[in-house]
Write a structure and sequence with these properties.
Length: 95
């Protein structure tokens, strides 16, 4: 049996007057939404390049989202009656 689905992600970036960039990524699966958060802080001595802060904050938000998805998958596997996978492995697939 084949299965197909489409999940949509929206990434929002905000920089404040102190050089802190915040990122919020929202993954909409159609049945639930999962949110990841990330920040980047510019040192006042660094050159003002908003793109670098955006890359760092966005990457950290997506990493946070990825961790939340992996944790949810591990919980779902356990609730399905399977033993908890070892480190860096989910349901027989190494990460």
């Amino acid at each position: 049996m084949t299965h197909s689905s489409e999940w949509k992600a929206r990434l929002h970036l905000f920089e404040d007057e102190h050089g802190t960039t915040q990122a919020h990524v929202v993954l909409d699966t159609g049945t639930t939404a999962v949110t990841g958060h990330g920040t980047a802080h510019r040192n006042p001595a660094d050159r003002d390049d908003p793109g670098i802060g955006e890359e760092l904050a966005a990457g950290r938000a997506m990493r946070d989202l990825a961790e939340k998805l992996l944790n949810a998958a591990e919980r779902d596997i356990e609730h399905a009656g399977s033993p908890r996978p070892g480190a860096h492995q989910v349901a027989g697939w190494p990460l």
